[in-house]
Amino acid sequence: MAAMRFTDAELPLHIADRLAGLPAVRAVALGGSRAAGTHRPDSDWDFAVYYRGGFDPADLRALGWPGEVSELGGWGGGVFNGGAWLTVDGRRVDVHYRDLADVEHHLAEARAGRFRIENLLFHLAGVPTYIVVAELAGNRVLHGSLPRPDYPPALRERAPGAWWSRAELTLSYARTNFAPRGAALECAGAAARACHETAHAVLAARGEWVTNEKRLLDRSGLRLVDPLVAAMTPDAAALTGALDRIAEILGAAAPE
């Protein structure tokens, strides 16, 4: 394996310099665990390119880094409108596309307490559209300038109820439709989703930003549901009892 040319301190500056030179890019930020200082030695590197106007992924491909570069909207559209999985100097590097017009829209919506929840891979409960605002709050800007918003009071007021309502409905549906048939897998899946929805509610009530679900249950104190899910068996009465107990735990944790 070839020796790495850049230290961990030098690498983000090297990458940001190359990304900042792409047409339409106005800012580059380092995100994820690397920005938060919670990374492991093998953690990947997450970057966001904030552009205004026409960004062309072909310009990113032309940098010559091996990997996969999606088109705009290539990750299913919505709030995550595409990006790239690359290898740079022997490290795994993710690049997310961030249209500044779209980011500014979601920032204004969050300040008004409005958001949507979209389906997205790797997010059991879905992803709130204010995730791009959460990124602004937690990312480390390496090139250009970006706002660093506080958690909006209106979002803190409205988001917890929206998330908790989804959790209640998720569990209620499972109790009515899955538990009576002894469908343990479906009940376990519903419990996992409801726990993540409740965790979003808990953290929103605290005014804490969420950018992924990796530590969501730990941050919200909901890991105690694990044994109940692990003990689920294809028995209708036992499943109903487990879902009722999970509903009690989540209800006690949920904001009033």
TrEMBL record:
Keywords: Transferase. Coiled coil: none annotated. The keyword RNA-binding does not apply. Residues 25-73 form the Polymerase nucleotidyl transferase domain. GO terms for molecular function: nucleotidyltransferase activity. The keyword Magnesium does not apply. InterPro entries: NT_sf, Polymerase_NTP_transf_dom. Pfam families: NTP_transf_2. This is Nucleotidyltransferase-like protein.
